[in-house]
Amino acid sequence: MPDTRHPKPARGENLLFLTDEQLRQGSEAMFFAYRGFTADPDRILADMAYGRAHHRALHFVGRAPGTTVNNLLNILGVTKQSLNRVLRTLIADGLVESKIGRNDKRERHLHLTEQGRALEQKLSDAQRARLRAAFRDAGPEAVAGFRTVLEAMMDPEMHSSYTKLRETGL
Question: pTM (2 decimals)?
Fold first, then answer.
């Protein structure tokens, strides 16, 4: 007969009261996971004298072809000066092209060139391989929980940008 005096906590309920030590361990795990997640692209980009800012720009321009510079600024959360420095390099090196907007001539719409798509694909392939292996090892429930945690950590405006990107690509 099951013990009804001490019911087993609902799945995840025991995680509602994490200790500071458990939270610290989670923060450290996230830090080292991020280092692993960025390590392969970092090695590829180092040969080209590019950094993570270049990678992020390539990723989001590739994810949302035709996105505006202002939209990219909002997604990346960087200064205009910083983004312009990165975009100037990517444009000069033939990886990104900037087109004047049809409706608003002040807008600049960004697209990857064929060479830019190839580099973005190479960088993303490396990260997808790492994610695929980790997700396969963790299993579907852990993957769903991981995504839930990541989304819950986003600031509301970032979550809005994330949702918009997922739904419309822009």
Answer: 0.82
